[in-house]
Batch of 2 targets.
Target 1
Amino acid sequence: MFFNQKTKLLAIALLAVSVSVRAQKVDYSAKVERLLSQMTLEEKLGQLNQYSNASDQTGPITRNSDGQIDEIRKGRVGSMLNVRGAKNTRLLQQEALKSRLKIPMIFGQDVVHGYRVTFPLPLAEAASWDLEMIEKTARVAATEAAASGIQWTFAPMVDISRDARWGRVMEGAGEDTYLGSKIAVARVRGFQGKGIGQLDAVMACAKHFAAYGAAVAGRDYNSVDMSLRQLWQYYLPPFKAAVDAGAATLMNSFNDLNGTPATASAYLQRDILKGAWKFDGFVVSDWGSIGEMIPHGYAKDCKDAAEMAMNGGSDMDMESRCYIENLAVLLKEGKVKEAQINDAVRRILTKKFELGLFENPYRFSDEKREKQVLNSPAFREVARDMARKSIVLLKNEKQVLPLAKNLKTIALVGPLAKSNEDMKGFWSVDWGKNDQLVSLYEGVQAKVGNQAKLLYAQGCGVEDTSTQGFAQAVQAAQQADVVVMAVGEKYDMSGEGHSRSNIHLPGVQEELIKAIQATGKPVVVLVMGGRPLIFNWTADHVPAIAFTWWLGSEAGNAMADVLFGDYNPSGKLPMSFPRSEGQLPLYYNYLHTGRWPQNDSEKQYKSAYLDVSNSPRYAFGYGLSYTKFEYSDLKLSRKNMTDTDQIEVSFVLKNAGTREGEEVVQLYLRDVVAQPLRPVQELKDFRKVKLKAQETTQIRFVIDREKLAFYNDQLDWITQAGDFDLMIGAACNDIRLTDHFTLTK
Ligand code: GLC
């Protein structure tokens, strides 16, 4: 599985260069104006119209594909999605070039966590807290997609979410605004590289604008209702970060926000995005969301919906056909303005010029390059490295892990131990070839199969309730020196349209774990899934547990690297793991209330549940290592600051163990007294640091006004004089060093 050092260094050097230099942006406004002046109204509306490839729909079928080619030839289709491959995109582009003005199409695809090489889920990558690696995997994904005829990915998804019932948490960066904003920037930079138009770059698309992750009850597509202060404080910043990082496009969201579907929200798309934020790219509607304003009960028909969406600032219509079929009449009736249509067309044409598609419409559709670039060993090595870094070690008592490489017999037990398919996770680009996905069993076999005997027993299915397989699984365990279990969801039990009210381990998997644990053998449980899951008995009784998400192409190899200590796990949870669904939404940066319980026994007249603790099972920022880190010697350069001052914070981190490891040190602040209220803690900075055994280093953070500011009820970005608690730790609930300072006016 390894390859020579030279190709690895070359590939990584290439990637490193590509993320550093940014190409100068050319001004195409004169060319855009000249072309716009030649266009008929129908040709303009064609640019606002996007169709999916009929054979690879990623949403409800809204129409049959008859006549699609004819519409392309007439210039009535400005973009397509779900068309893959240099050959297929070239063939369709040739049809578009038969139109009167020969305006090329843009090809978009959900390259969410890899194109040909599949990376860990975005939520898993967020668990790495490794911004450089996150940028690198987006770079690889862009390089592969752009070699395959695609100029636009519908990623990064930057929706903050605090509710693990929502299936799409797998696609984002978790619950925290600061971490989510940093990751949004890393992914935009990775996708767009040195700038769109480069042959290894694709347009990014920050989605879903906005607040889609706050769907009531975690049920996908459900309503969102929140104060504007909440929206600005927690849900908009990752979008702003993506726009400031140069994201070429945004995608709006299916949800209504405070009674207005996002697709029709002029507040979001015109006032904030194109107004206050001066966004010069374009907004694409999410699949059919313009037409969906009819079932929302916001529009009476497609014409009504088109009027509201255009007035609301949606530029391109994905799949609903409401624009192409109604905007001409709406214009004639004076219900939409020509200036709005021209603005939308300008934004789209500008991106087509920037992509170089007018110079050479086929420049991304080069089959020779496609063959050279896709699925290279170097790219798979990046996938393996990212996968290792995404694994979160939740428990490791009696030093069960790492496993010795000279074990005689290892039992691999559980419904996911031999699964290839599930390793890809939701929103992978499906090649239908599971040989590209390394299973846990294959990874362990490649690592130690030449000296250890591997036993396998499925034990049970993921969801079925049959315990018939238990006996065989127990037998395998009894013959082994150690048991490694692979349990969790199926890959498609999270993702779009896959919310779940019950996020316990499905089926009888926890019963299987109990049966294996009862053998008395050392047991390691690997939990796999696209969201936080609940497995309380396992958490209480099994000595070694890791959460491995869905790790993509190199999943099995990465899990084996961690199991046998070739990589010391460094992941930290980007979302709180609940004890019960009843706690959801659950998040670490909560408000204290007037009655927060001091401990779990305090129930009466407290903001608490009678039947479960308020605390998460596993906290935001939590993750263990095979070594241990010590924090000491905290110093603040001053204990008082004004808005214009800064405080330098420094402390010493030591790897006090016997093996090299990486630690994610986290800085939290609390604004102790404020109006409106501020949370009990908020992540304000972090570093991922690699230290050799016994090595120490000094870590520095800077506290400035930006880290203290917040939105008031008037949506002003303010600070208030007062005291702040400073916390530095290995997790939000594992604080190692504390201090205080005061902001004076
Ligand atoms: C889907 C998703 C969106 C995706 C789009 C195109 O419904 O909501 O994230 O980019 O349609 O596949």
Note: The mean pLDDT is 95.
Target 2
Amino acid sequence: MRARILVVEDEEALCALLEYNISKEGFDVEIATDGEEALIKIEEESPDLVLLDWMLPKVSGIEICRQIRASAETRNLPVIMLTARGEEDDRIRGLDTGADDYLTKPFSMTELMARLRAVLRRTRPTLSGDVATFGDIILDRERRRVRRGQREVHLGPTEFRLLDCLLQRPGRVYSREQLLDLVWGRDVYVEARTVDVHVGRLRKALNRRGEKDPIRTVRAAGYALDETYS
Ligand code: CA
């Protein structure tokens, strides 16, 4: 599921830039250009995060933030406040406004995305890429837990990283050397055969009850998640 971001900003050029960059990151974007529209969209679209300009026509960013926190439905809705240099005062520095974070304009898109992801990770872990699923397998990066169907799968740290790596690109065949680089790191000297040992352990943990094996061995090439599995 993609996180929905509501951008509340009255500067047209910045709005377009934000919309372009945030959707490029894989989020759904809604736009509101004044405070009233923002309040309506917060209620109707139930966004996962609001990127909120401080100075807005009709209803100010601070007032919107206050209303978000006052309503039971939106109390936990994450807010990142945008301020122009000079507008920020002690209130926003201390985040007394109820915002989860704030950015001072001008800011880089890289910075914004980092903050956005950090706030989402904290508040909406299932939407921030911390959870990967493949068929009945669920890998939760934040809690470092794996489930298959209703069953908890106990994995060692290497098997966990190995599964995480395979889950990022189902169907893609990873050679043993690629897996060594990605899972063990480039600086570690490990024999290619070690990969086979850990894939074996991962399979054993995943397929404990004789379930279908989600990992495909590609002769002379390596391993992949079987795309016909899910
Ligand atoms: Ca403004």
Note: The chain has two domains: 4-127, 131-229.
